[in-house]
Structure formats: structure tokens, C-alpha cells
Amino acid sequence: MPLCLITSFASAQSLTTSDSIDIFVKSKMQQRHIPALQVAIVRDGAIVKNTTYGIANLEYNIKATDQTIFSVNSITKAFVGVAIMQLAEENKLKITDPLSRYLDSLPDSWKNITLQQVLTHISGLPDIMNEEEQVMGHGDEQEAMQQVKLLPIEFKPGERFRYNQTGYVLLGQIITKLSGMHFTQFIEERQFKPAGMVLTRFGDSYDVIPNYAGAYTMNRQVGDRFIRNSTPGNSYIQFPLFFRTAAGIQSTATDMANWVIALKARKLLKQSSSIDLLWTPAILNNGKIGGFNMLTNGYALGWPTVTRDEHPAVGPVGGGRSALFVYLKDDLSIIVLTNLMGGNPDQFIDEIAGFYIPDMREVNGFGLPANLKKLRAALLKEGFDKAVTVAARLKKNDPAFQLNENELNKWGYQLFAQKNISAATAIFKLNVSLYPQSANTYDSLAEILEATEQYSEALANYRKVVALEPQNKHAAARIQALSAK
Predict the structure, then answer these.
(1) Strand order across the 201-202 sheet
(2) Exposed, middle or buried, 368 (CB in 10 Å: 0-12/13-18/19+)?
């Protein structure tokens, strides 16, 4: 596993929280090749930080400003969730109603699917996106619906989570029918305007949008494969009008922050119970929740959820480029918009939150699995140099106590990034003792020993890697380099 050296700036006591976040964000932009980024942070019903970084347009070297507009992609679905709940508050619908109550000419297998199942991606509907990840119908709604209605349902409603765009097209049709205006106008009138979202609009890459940041990607398609470039290239995305419930809103971090403030202040939804329902993840038929990954592990009414015991959140994400986290118990909301597909700001928003909530800092153990937290607590008392002995005792006292190889490895690299070298080394050595037949454990230990100039020990561990995994080119190359010293 390659060693990632990530400098931690947050401990610099001479810097303000805002300054420290600036340094952190700039380091993430550099690591991830993000051209431009906006961040807005909300506390106590007000924006406490609102900063823009980088270049909006690489071709003409145009600097991004707070007026620069970014696509929020699938965060649009969160607006749709609010729109549906607004109609529910007006008694125009119930989210438990079947689609067939509002839409005609549906296939029989679609008729009993509920609005809630559609909103939460557990409907089993076939997807209106084709194999090339393009919207069916060549931009024509009628043609697209004819094509997708011919496809079989993918699974029994409620059986599992599967991200699906078809349902949001149907929701757009329902909003238009019940509100008496096109769904884009309804969202503009009922959300953009009352929230003071003065720069926000619907659109895509093919519209002329003043101050638009565009979209870049590090991937380039060659035949059927995608190759990662060393520099960003242009990415063009089309959202046909009928598809703009699924993705299509263009906004700024300031506007998005004002939207969150308006929503929490009940300017968009009048009843607190509506917001509670909006942010409650769907329960599958097996009693569990389903979501994208280990972080956004559930899905509510247009809102992915970060369901966890510590600092739970709702976290809409869009196009791998934009994210918005509302921390449900912490009076903290963070919006990060970028113009890089694959910039994935959802992966570091928690770290930004840590500047305001200290126990959310990685250095304080946030995000570690339960058993690693038990180990960490014991090692802080007894010393990381006793890691092997302490782990054995915890296992003896509790047979269910297990330490996962990959989780230990990840923690070791986190400790190294935090410049806690002795602790990192101890964790890598513990991993070797627990998994002596894994080439990767020796490889990680060898890397940290080499990085700390313990060359003879590093060489010995690289040799163990090759003994277990003769085809490991990285270890072989390091053996050759270190043997020449």
C-alpha cells in the first residue's frame, strides 16, 4: 500500500479556526487536483465562514469568487424531497400513496410503488439511464418514458437500496400536476425565493450561465476504459428539462447555506415533524437501512443520511463534486462545492467539522471502528509500545473483540499523517503480529521504517513481503534501492 504523507495543519495554535480551515482546504485541493472550491459553514442560524478558493475556468485562468456558480448535481434531489413535503403539508399528497394515485398509464408492476419508496431509492424501478450513463430518449420525455416502461422491474419494492433516476422523473411529473406549475418553477417559487437564493437556477453544461465554474474530470475515456490523467480535462453534462428533478440545480455555497438556514428556520416547511420525516432513512424489508457506502449509509426523502451514534448527519452529495452535511445534533452545517468530478468533498467534510467539534477530529479517534476505539483508549493509558500485549488482553477478556487487518492498517497511516510516528509504528507492528501471513502488513511496516530512516529493519520487512508475495514489484524495487545504500 503506497504511503500517503498528509500534513496536518489544524494543531497550529497561532492560527484562527478560519485560517486553519483555509490551510486544510487548500491542501485537500492540491491533493485531489480540485481547480475551484467554495465552502460555507452555518452555526446558530448564520453563516460563520464563507470562502472561495482556486480557479473557476482553467482555459482562461479565471479566478473563482463568491459569485461563481457550481453544479450541485444530485443534491437537487434534496430540493425535490422538500417540495414533496411542502405538498404533503398542504394535504395534496401523502408519501405513503402509490404512484398510480397521481399518474396514469403506468406498468402494472409500478402502480403500487409508493412515493416514499421512490424518494428513498428502494422502489425497484428500472433506471432511465442507459448503459452509457446517458438519459434515455435523446432529450424527449415521452420517448424516454416509453423506453423505460418496457424494462422489467429490478426487485421487489423495499427489498434493497439501488440508486435510481426514474423515480425522480416521476416525482417531477407529480409535482407539476399537483402544484399547477412546472416543477422547476415550483421549486424556484417555494424554495429559491423564500431562502434568498439569488444566484441559484436550473441548468446544465450546455446553458449559458454567467460566472459558471464548469466541470472538470481527471478521467479520460479511451474505448471502453477510463484512464486517469495527471491534469483535469473538461466534462460536459446534459440534464434534459424533464430530468432536472434528478440533477440540474446550479448554485453557490452562499445560496446553499441560506437554503439550509431557511429550512431549519421552518421557512420552507412549517412543521418540525415534516423535517423529521424528511431526514429519516428508509427501512428495508429486512429491517436494515441501505445507502451508498459506509459513510452515507442510509437514504431519506431525497437526502442521503450519515447514520451513526456519534455526530449523525444528513449529507446530500452530487456528482462526486459537491456535498452538504447537516449535523443533526451539533447545530453545524457545512457546504462544499467544487468543479471537479471525483473531488468527493463528502470524504473530508467531517474533517472540516472537526475544527468546530474537537471530538470529531481524526487525531482524537473519531471515525475509528468500535474495537479500535477500545484499543486506542487502553493504549493511551498504558502506552502504544504495549500494543501487542494490550490487544491480547482485550481479546482474552472479550472473545468477540476482533481487530481487522485493513482497519488497523488505515489507522496506522492516519497516525503517521498526524506525525505520531511511534504510535503508527506500534500499530503496524501489531498488525504484523496478528496477520503474519499477510504481505501487506509487512509492506506497510517496511514503508514507515524506511520513511523514518530505519533502513535495515525496512529491508528485512520488504524481504518478508517478497517471500509471501513474490510478484510484489514495489517491495522488490525497494529491496534493490535499500540494498544499494
Answers:
(1) 70-73, 249-251, 201-202
(2) middle
Please state the pTM of the whole predicted model.
0.87
Across 286-298, average pLDDT: 96
* Cβ neighbours of residue 394 closer than 8 Å, sequence gap 6 or more: 374, 375, 378, 401
Instruction: Report which of 146, 151, 102, 153 is spatially closest to residue 124, judged by C-alpha positions.
Output: 153
CA-CA distance, 372 to 48, in Å (whole number)?
A: 34
Tens digit of each residue's pLDDT (9 = 90 or more) over 134-145: 899 999 999 999
The secondary element (H helix, E strand) that includes residue 333 is strand 332-338
| C-alpha to C-alpha distance for 54 and 313, rounded to whole angstroms | 28
CA distance 263 to 95: 19
Give, as one character, the DSSP assignment of residue 109: G
Start-end of H helices in 335-386: 349-353, 370-382
Cβ contacts of 287 within 8 Å, gap of 6 or more: none
Looking at the chain, how many residues does it have? Answer: 485
For β-strands 216-222 and 340-341, DSSP reports them as parallel
Residue located via cell numbers 467534510: 349
**Which of 368, 389, 367, 369 minimizes the C-alpha distance to 379?**
389
pLDDT score, position 431: 98
Q: pLDDT above 70 covers what percent of the chain?
A: 96
